[in-house]
Design goal:
Elements lengths: L3 H18 L3 E8 L4 E8 L2 E10 L7 H4 L2 H17 L6 E13 L2 E7 L6
Parallel strand pairs: 3-4
Antiparallel strand pairs: 1-2, 2-3, 4-5
Length: 120
Amino acid sequence: MVNKKKLGQLGEELAAEYLKELGYSIINRNYSCRIGELDIIAAKDNYLVFVEVKTKQNFKFGTPREEVNYHKQQKLQQVAQYYISQHPKKEANYRFDVIGILYQSEDDYQVSHIKNAFLT
């Protein structure tokens, strides 16, 4: 069993690699400000994509999408707005995606990608 912090780091690494394979440019990882944190900030097709990564070893306590509740969505939106205010020349269009990683081992994992996971 992998500890929670290590599992999160593994998931974020896998998510970043997955996005790169799909042609996304990774702009920032673990962006942090006084408001909170964004796991991955990526860009593709004139969109700035704020990605929340949820890594689990089972779905006993819900799916990754279910973990991004209303409160978490509000927090992500606030951090994204702050990021945009500090980087005004970035792409004008943006969205929020959730990437779920079901992780069993280095060679046994599944990735699910929910684009536009919630409305802004």
